[in-house]
Hints:
Blueprint: E1 2-6, E2 13-14, H1 18-31, H2 47-57, H3 62-67, H4 69-83, E3 90-91, H5 95-103, E4 108-113, H6 118-126, E5 137-138, H7 149-161, E6 170-174, H8 177-185, E7 189-193, H9 200-205, E8 210-212
Parallel strand pairs: 1-4, 1-6, 4-5, 6-7, 7-8
Antiparallel strand pairs: 2-3
Helix pairs in contact: 1-4
Amino acid sequence: MKLILFDIDGTLVDCGGQARTAFGTALHAVFGETGPIDEYDFSGKTDTRIIVDLMTAAGRSRDEVLAVLPRLKDEYLDTLDRGLVRERMRVLPGIAPLLEHLAVRDDVVLALLTGNFERGARIKLSRDDLNRYFGFGSFGDDVFDRNDLPPIALERALQATQRRFHPDETMIVGDSVLDVACARAHGIACLAVATGRTSRAELEAVKPMWLVDDLADSLEHPAFS
Length: 225
């Protein structure tokens, strides 16, 4: 059995910048400013970290930001749900056939490992009916640091399947250097895919177990064998 943990943004889907816009709207509604959002790299960060990074960069204290995090979270998620337009999104190359193939295998369990708040993750995946492939996962609600997500995913896999997956039975699929670092921190193999904002050269520099330009020919890739 193999547990395959997928990132969302830049790995499964591209939201066309709409999530960044929703963050900006929410930050402005709560704080009256957005911080350096246009220059900030969201790749691989948890939603909580994104909020804290942007607002501390704008001069707010961490405690001040965390105190209003529930309100800001609700503002962001409501804005995202109202405004996320399917026509400005795309499912990334190879994802649809890959998920269809993996979903019917009895030796594979699919789950999410993402910095998105869970509701945000589900909103993004709902636009192309991708939630049906992922019964559980670990999310940005759970932790500040992405490296803390894998143990949560493994525990939820045990709860969902009654089987304990070990790191050598697990794989993370992601598009950022933080995905690779997260996997390495727990002895988990990582398939890095250069479909997000991180270049192939940047991904290559951190030496994931596998690196591909996209998942268009993924059915033949040894990582999914």
